[in-house]
Amino acid sequence: MALTDPIADALTIIRNGSMVKKESVDMPASKIIKSILEILQKEEYIDTFKSIEDKKQGRLKVYLKYISGKPAIINLKRISRPGLRVYVNKEEIPRVLRGKGLAIISTSAGLVTDNQAREKGVGGEVLMYIW
Questions:
Q1: Which of 94, 90, 91, 124 is nearest to 107 (CA)?
Q2: pTM of the prediction?
Q3: Mean pLDDT of 9-27
Q4: Residues 6+ apart with CB under 8 A from 87
Q5: Is-contact 48 84, C-beta < 8 A?
């Protein structure tokens, strides 16, 4: 099975793993997924992740975070997808749940959160929402 949207597949793996309260999940590695996981770790939505080398592209093992038995990630939503790209300028950067959630935006300065994009004054492609 060919992966047409590896970001959406990674989000689904994390979403499904947290719903069944798994300690960790595995997914194929890529630079953009690693960047997304770094943001999720920094914003304390996941505990940590590590790269596992194999003879192919590698794998990422993501350790999920739970707060008093409930997942730290309530929902992940893919916004921009291969069939419909969503771009915003610096004035249109979305606020997820009035600032309680997080938007991850791909900019010319790399992947950033919605707050970082506002601080830098840059727009870009809205990859996903998380809350």
A1: 124
A2: 0.92
A3: 96
A4: 80, 123, 124, 125, 126
A5: no
